[in-house]
Specification:
Blueprint: E1 4-9, E2 12-17, H1 28-42, E3 49-54, E4 59-61, H2 66-69, H3 74-92, E5 98-102, E6 105-107, H4 109-116, E7 119-123, E8 127-129, H5 143-151, H6 153-162, E9 166-167, H7 168-174, E10 179-181, H8 186-198, H9 202-218, H10 220-235, H11 238-248
Parallel strand pairs: 2-3, 3-5, 4-6, 5-7, 6-8, 7-10
Antiparallel strand pairs: 1-2, 8-9
Helix pairs in contact: 1-3, 3-4, 4-5, 5-6, 9-10
The chain binds coenzyme A.
Length: 258
């Protein structure tokens, strides 16, 4: 695996898209490596949180590979979008909090990858957007669905219809960036955020993500239903016994993810 690097340390996995000469654009090889990386992480009980970032100083991911897009037919494009959507679902649904460390440009599929992550730390120099209409395309890796949920319909439609990028400060104002830091501090800040999460109960984290995603998929009524059953599932976990017990005994919990 060379176009995607996966490092693991202290229950935190860092996934780096590693094609800096093409600004980490998502070609077939990168897509395949990301698919394998997330399948591996989802199956690894030793991983409690994930950071996704891009190699090099310029880009997080500059989008799907335009040279590959240019050769699509109508029919093959449906498959291209289905593959992209399914990768983004694998990221979003991997059962651990995923933090995008947006270290530079995130355009098209790059912003869609950042949107599939649950939290986003931006470099002050980052620029992000969905420029597909300028290529005669539309976003196809989930951007038309996830961007409006994160920033609201009006802002999302402005970004999708103009294709114009927004800077980090605007992204922060839109709620697209959870926080903005200096370029050299992006990974450190993402690790700090991951650190705050990694001390919490792994079962609860997984179920909380599941409740939010379920509500988005199925609407608020079904979401509420899912929430109470997932709440019940959390209450039946060893982590819940440990978390409440530790509070009452005035000690730090030692969660086991069971
Ligand atoms: N697909 C394929 N190659 C890409 C790419 C993409 N999405 N984005 C950048 N690259 C390649 C460039 O072709 C160039 O390759 P080369 O050196 O072999 O010519 C290399 O990455 C560096 O990019 P370059 O355009 O020279 O860098 P820049 O700093 O001048 O501009 C961007 C940076 C991000 C503004 C510009 O690369 C860009 O607009 N990229 C496309 C963004 C986009 O539309 N993404 C959505 C795709 S759906």
């Amino acid at each position: 695996m060379t176009t995607v690097l996966v490092e693991k340390a202290d229950r935190l996995a860092t996934v780096t898209v590693n094609r800096p000469d093409k600004l980490n654009a998502l070609n077939d090889a990168v897509m395949g490596d990301l698919e394998r990386a997330f399948a591996g992480l989802a199956a690894d009980p030793g991983v409690g949180a994930v950071i996704v970032t891009g190699a090099g100083p310029k880009a997080f991911v500059a989008g799907a590979d335009i040279a590959e897009l240019a050769t699509m037919t109508g029919l093959s494009a449906v498959g291209v979008a289905a593959r992209g959507q399914s990768l983004m679902q694998a990221v979003e649904g991997c059962g651990r909090p995923v933090i995008a460390a947006v270290n530079g440009y995130a355009f098209g599929g790059g912003l869609e990858l950042a949107l599939a992550c649950h939290l986003r730390v931006f470099s002050r120099t980052a620029k992000v957007g969905l420029p597909e209409v300028g290529l005669g395309l539309i976003p196809g890796y989930g951007g038309t669905q996830r961007l409006p949920r994160v920033v609201g319909r009006g802002r999302a439609l402005e970004m999708i219809l103009t294709g114009e990028p927004v800077d980090a400060e605007t992204a922060l104002r839109f709620g697209l960036a959870n926080r903005v830091v200096e370029p050299e501090a992006v990974l450190e800040e993402a690790r700090r955020l991951a650190g705050a999460i990694l001390g919490k109960g792994p079962v609860a984290l997984r179920l909380a993500l599941e409740a939010v995603l379920r509500g988005e998929e199925a609407g608020p009524g079904e979401g509420m239903k899912a929430e109470r059953f997932l709440f019940g599932l959390a209450a039946s976990s060893g982590d819940m016994k440990e978390g409440t017990g530790a509070f009452l005994e005035r000690r730090k919990p030692a969660f086991r993810g069971l």
